[in-house]
Amino acid sequence: xxxxxxxxxxxxxxxxxxxxxxxxxxxxxxxxxxxxxxxxxxxxxxxxxxxxxxxxxxxxxxxxxxxxxxxxxxxxxxxxxxxxxxxxxxxxxxxxxxxxxxxxxxxxxxxxxxxxxxxxxxxxxxxxxxxxxxxxxxxxxxxxxxxxxxxxxxxxxxxxxxxxxxxxxxxxxxxxxxxxxxxxxxxxxxxxxxxxxxxxxxxxxxxxxxxxxxxxxxxxxxxxxxxxxxxxxxxxxxxxxxxxxxxxxxxxxxxxxxxxxxxxxxxxxxxxxxxxxxxxxxxxxxxxxxxxxxxxxxxxxxxxxxxxxxxxxxxxxxxxxxxxxxxxxxxxxxxxxxxxxxxxxxxxxxxxxxxxxxxxxxxxxxxxxxxxxxxxxxxxxxxxxxxxxxxxxxxxxxxxxxxxxxxxxxxxxxxxxxxxxxxxxxxxxxxxxxxxxxxxxxxxxxxxxxxxxxxxxxxxxxxxxxxxxxxxxxxxxxxxxxxxxxxxxxxxxxxxxxxxxxxxxxxxxxxx
Length: 512
Description:
By secondary structure, this protein is α+β, with helices and mostly antiparallel strands. Helices cover 45% and strands 15% of the residues.
């Protein structure tokens, strides 16, 4: 199953963090659909590393909101804890044992009004993507982009019930939990047959929680830039057309439906730019929330040193990031921590050169396919896994690819722009102070914008990366794995260990 382009230019989400907010909302929604009945209580047990980050990222609100059925783009996520209280739902937060679970893991226990508890274990793996790895202590892989029937029974179920589905099953000492996975909605007859099977005392129908629906088996997988270039040449297609065809094959939707969805993402990108230009009320106030508008005024008054398009793109990128930090609705690209780079760059280049919306949408498809290739080569988009290079660096690189595609159809130039941008930020650490995505994340998006434009200009002038693009991506994977854990969103290294950051963290922890 290939990754969707809308997991690269997307999801549309409430900020501030794709891993800790959007991903957690999706885990919560999966728990909601698996548990089935309305909750009387929702208990969260988080991975130990999240002790210093979950409050700043509103992870508890996202998980609780998702467990009440709210999408990652629903504004009510912002007040989900209070909403649960108003509905009479008890909530609690604790932490999992050290060393036993992946980073960004949450165990949600949903107890219904009859006293029945359902436990769902999920991990947010970056950019809003998630993995559900256990239900009621039974290990299994429950995908957010498929249909599932989950049955609880006194023992193993007859094999004929799993015809046409992939089946996972296990025991937890009390009962057997079985998951049947489908690429289409299971028929009413199948559901009734499972519900009435001997020994089954409970069943849930779990629909996909991702906006784009299911992922289908497809031969169209692009694990290298070279493969994309070859497909474009052999089929006489642009990289954007290759991207659309890939997504259509992956999802089973028409090319027109795929393009319409990217138009919706671009419209949300523009809305976030407009909102960012107004200034934002930050969650923690580590930054003013007015830096984007402040830079726009400097541009209007002719006070910028560099001049031209880059200051405008940077100002808009900062504004979008401030809006994200105020729990605004943004488009992760590929993460919320880097959500300003593509909006700032694409809207600025459209204004400067008069590109049609259709042209910018094509550029977004190019950026998305560049991100798909990175994902296939095992790049992590999570700051806590790969450092800030997995966020700001990747976003800058896919932006460079998209910008270049607006001025040339040559795949080689497009991917060399990506490679040069990626090389420029290799090893970038993820060191937010005190947890919130405010410092230094917002200003790094401005640097990512400048890097993307510079790399695009170099590629368009004929400059090429000495290291081939695919090998640059592999170097990124190597760097992500070698980077010390203290420099990967742990709030203990880099800027997070400065005297100012330590003082601030103590103030936040003590409630001052």
